[in-house]
Amino acid sequence: MKRIIITSLFTMFLSYAGIAQTRPQQSALNLNPSFLNPAATGIEDYSQLRLGLNKQWVGIDGAPSTAWVNGEMRLKTKADEQQEDVISKGHGIGLNLYYDKIGPYTTLNLNLGYAYHLPLSQGLVLSAGFAGGLRSTRYDIAKSLNPDQPGDPAAGVQASLSKKYTPDLNAGLLLNGKNFFAGVSMMQIISSKFVDVPESESKYRGQLLSSLGYVFRFEDQATSLWLSGVVKSDFANPLLYDINAKLWYKNLGWIGSTYIKDDAVGAGFGVNIIKSISISYLYEWGVSKHISAYSKGSHVLCIGFKLLKDNQSGMPKMGW
Q: Which residues of 300-310 are buried (b: 16+ CB within 10 A; e: fewer)?
């Protein structure tokens, strides 16, 4: 009975996902801002590399699993333009690579990104960026929980172990102040089918994201509270949103929590092992009884490396 229930739950999820696929849902905005908005590419004065792993719904066969790599660098930022808490003028370039697996679908995506950061006034910076690349989607019908998904005739005729390549294009704007940010981005601008069969509804649909964050700094100047949120829409399904809170102490690390609408609540921490290396972890509990009854929760792990020069503090100016 338990196996039947789990299979039914996951089949419903795949039926929904098969109609309109979106990029993997990142649980914490601070772990990789440019993944959700290309305008954040190279926003720091230092170069950095981040490695991440997200295991969702542990205990359920075929549940989503995503591994990703992000690398970013700032081009030719003058030393006299760098300020400890202000984003400086300049160009940023970056790379986002992720490997995503859910049920019978496996996706490999590579994006190259660029952003320009323009100070509008003291402490206020407008950033604009875009990212583009190629996505490879593989469908293994032998691993499908329901090979005859209703509403998508492609599922029954798609060749076993087929692969489809599609383009990926994303763009965004980001406004940063000393204590806030506000951004908007359009992801998967080019809508494309990942199962190439006539009348197939299996496609990547564009997604609009709006983000907002604010920092409350305490009197001791060593502690600060960072609040942020993201609202997501694919123009076909109900709005999704997540809310994040982090309590920073100096440059040592943070503790925080997150809430994802109709999905999960989570708690986590981040620690700067040394000034140039950090590790972050987040554990999530499913809020839906249909999932939490059979899943052991979800895990998010991220390791970051910063290439610091001279006396750079390593404290992110966009601390989300």
A: bbbebebebee
> The dihedral of CA 33, 36, 39, 42: what is its sign?
positive
* Radius of gyration for the alpha carbons in the chain, expressed in angstroms and rounded: 20
pLDDT tens-digit map of 175-215? 998 889 999 999 999 877 655 555 555 667 889 999 999 99
The phi and psi torsions of 193 (rounded to 5 degrees) equal -80, 140
Smallest CA-to-CA distance from 171 within 116, 99, 121, 241 is with: 116
Q: Cα–Cα distance between 13 and 5 in angstroms, integer? A: 13
- Beta bridge mates, 271: 253, 279
Q: Which of 111, 108, 143 shows the shortest CA–CA distance to 129? A: 111
Can you list the domains of the chain with their CATH numbers? 35-307 (2.40.160.40)
Distance CA 261, CA 206 (A): 20
Beta bridge partners of 31: none
- Distant-in-sequence contacts of 279-287, Cβ < 8 A, 24+ apart: 279/303, 279/304, 280/28, 280/30, 280/31, 280/304, 282/27, 282/28, 282/256, 282/258, 284/27, 284/56, 284/258, 284/260, 286/57, 287/262, 287/263
Predicted TM-score (pTM) of this structure: 0.83
Q: Residue 10 in 3-state DSSP?
A: helix
Burial class (CB in 10 A: 0-12, 13-18, 19+), 133: middle
**What whole-number distance in Å separates Cα of residue 107 and Cα of residue 121?**
42
> pLDDT tens-digit profile of 275-293?
899 999 999 998 877 777 7
Two structure tokens written together for 52: 């991440």
Q: How far apart are CA 24 and CA 204, in angstroms?
A: 12
Contacts of residue 253, defined as CB under 8 A and 6 or more positions apart, other chains included, come to: 269, 270, 271, 272, 278
How far apart (Å, rounded) are the C-alpha atoms in residues 137 and 109? 9
Provide CB contacts within 8 A for 187, sequence distance 6+.
22, 23, 36, 170, 206, 207, 208, 209
